[in-house]
Structures are given as C-alpha cells and as structure tokens.
Amino acid sequence: MDLDAVTKQSALHAKPDGLTLQYGTAGFRTKAEHLDHVMFRMGLLAVLRSKQTKSTIGVMVTASHNPEEDNGVKLVDPLGEMLAASWEEHATCLANAEEQHLPRVLVDISEKAAVDLHQDAFVVIGRDTRCLSEPR
C-alpha cells in the first residue's frame, strides 16, 4: 500500500473539522456535503476487505429513501450481506480518523484483519440516480 499516495489523495477529500460519524446497519448517512472524505475512505476500506476475503466487495452510494440533500454509503460483503460487525468498527474508525492519523489507521486495520496487501482486490460500485450520488 502506497501510504504517501493515499495521504496525498486524502488531502483532496479532507475530513470536516469536528465531524464524527458512526457506521450502522445502513452504513453512513448524513448530508451529502459531509460525505466526501467518507466516500474516499470507504473505497480504501472496500479494497482492504476485498483483499482479506479474497472476494468482491460492493460499495453502495445511496440514500434514495431520504430527502434529496441526504446521501449515504455502505459496504456490502461478498454474498450481498451486511458488512461484518468487526469491519463496521474499522469503517467508523477510518471515517473519523484525523488526516495525519489516516496512514496509521490503515496499517492497523490491515494488521488486525490479517490483510494480505499483495492479494488482488475487486470492488463494485453502485449508486442511485440522484445528482448527489454521481462521482465527483
């Protein structure tokens, strides 16, 4: 994992000061304007989860049942099930990490979950059709 590249790209998706989020059954849900850093970081987490499971992981960007300005992101495990509870903890930790701690948090997750960083990863992204779900 190229932590320098991750740090550089993460700076383009900085975490808003004072924002704390919790991964729950529906993933992360909040105003779309507060989710940029979460989307970036959940992409990283999906790659680690894929490497760990040696399977495809889904990233779903949606909150179509919520008002237009709301949005969300959740990870989907290999058989279409909810993300494993231990990985929900990783998601919360990663989303809330301050920028300077992001590389260490990624290394910690990789070590705790025994992720083979040389393993290939495959991530599928899905989204609803609302404009706030489009890639930026």
Helices and strands, with pairings:
Layout: H1 3-10, E1 28-31, H2 36-53, E2 56-61, E3 70-76, H3 85-96, H4 102-112, E4 122-127
Helix amount, in percent?
A: 25-40%
The proportion of residues in beta strands is 15-25%
Largest sheet strand order: 1-3-2-4
**CATH hierarchy, class of the domain at 1-11 and 28-80 and 105-135:** Alpha Beta
Number of helices: 4
Mean residue pLDDT: 89
Per CATH, the superfamily of the domain at 1-11 and 28-80 and 105-135 is Alpha-D-Glucose-1,6-Bisphosphate, subunit A, domain 3
Shape: globular
Give the helix/strand class. alpha+beta
State the end-to-end CA separation. Answer: 24 Å
**What is the gyration radius calculated from CA atoms?**
14 Å
Low-confidence stretches at least 5 residues in length (pLDDT < 50)? none
Number of DSSP strands?
Answer: 4
Largest sheet: 4 strands, mixed
Question: The CATH topology of the domain at 1-11 and 28-80 and 105-135 is what?
Answer: Alpha-D-Glucose-1,6-Bisphosphate, Chain A, domain 3
Order of helices and strands: HEHEEHHE
CATH architectural group of the domain at 1-11 and 28-80 and 105-135? 3-Layer(aba) Sandwich
Characterization of this structure:
This protein has 136 residues and is an alpha+beta fold. It has a domain at 1-11 and 28-80 and 105-135: 3-Layer(aba) Sandwich (Alpha-D-Glucose-1,6-Bisphosphate, Chain A, domain 3). It is built from four helices and four strands; from the N terminus they run αβαββααβ. It has helices at residues 3-10, 36-53, 85-96, 102-112, and strands at residues 28-31, 56-61, 70-76, 122-127. It has a four-stranded mixed β-sheet, covered by helices on one side. Strand 2 and strand 3 (70-76) form a beta hairpin. The protein starts with a helix and ends in a 9-residue tail after the last strand.
